[in-house]
């Protein structure tokens, strides 16, 4: 993992996030025929249940991930991406999302990836996520693999993640 890697609370529309989201969308479109760009259609920046993190190495944004609400107690992990695979960026982003989701009051995190995305399936399983029945818009989709993980008891008082502010977000 890069020595100077740190997480920043941000927004999907932040200028530093856009190249990462575009690269992820291009990769998903090429590999699976769908780019997932509609992930932030219902994003509410002023809602503490919506979490978006950037992973930065010095001044370069090198990874991202988000959590949005499925219910009051279940958050959905979206748009996980590491610009440089195999350097611990994805692990750091996911750990940051889990901590931020717990502080936001979520008891569980769910996510979906493609069954054919074996790297992602293995990544999540290694981090304690287990296959769950397909949920929401993934019900009946044979190409979808849904995973879930308990975050433990929800804290009595919730707050936003204690992270640095975003880099030049306007």
Automatic annotation (TrEMBL):
CDD domains per the UniProt record, alphabetical: NAT_SF (cd04301)
Transferase found in the keyword field: yes
MF GO annotations: acyltransferase activity, transferring groups other than amino-acyl groups
InterPro entries xref list: Acyl_CoA_acyltransferase, Bact_Acetyltransf, GNAT_dom
Keyword terms: Acyltransferase, Transferase
Residue ranges constituting the N-acetyltransferase domain according to the UniProt record: 4-152
Protein name per UniProt: N-acetyltransferase domain-containing protein
């Amino acid at each position: 993992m890069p020595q100077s890697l740190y997480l920043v609370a941000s927004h999907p529309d932040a200028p530093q996030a856009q190249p990462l989201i575009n690269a992820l969308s291009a990769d998903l479109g090429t590999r699976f025929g769908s780019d997932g760009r509609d992930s932030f259609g219902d994003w509410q920046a002023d809602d503490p249940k919506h979490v978006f993190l950037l992973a930065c190495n010095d001044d370069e944004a090198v990874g991202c991930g988000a959590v949005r609400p499925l219910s009051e107690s279940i958050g959905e992990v979206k748009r996980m991406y590491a610009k440089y695979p195999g350097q611990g960026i994805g692990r750091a982003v996911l750990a940051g999302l889990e901590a931020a989701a717990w502080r936001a009051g979520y008891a569980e995190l769910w996510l979906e990836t493609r069954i054919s995305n074996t790297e992602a399936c293995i990544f999540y399983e290694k981090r304690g996520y287990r296959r769950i029945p397909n949920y929401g818009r993934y019900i009946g989709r044979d190409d979808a693999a849904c995973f879930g993980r308990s975050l433990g008891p929800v804290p009595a008082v919730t707050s936003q993640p204690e992270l640095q502010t975003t880099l030049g977000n306007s």
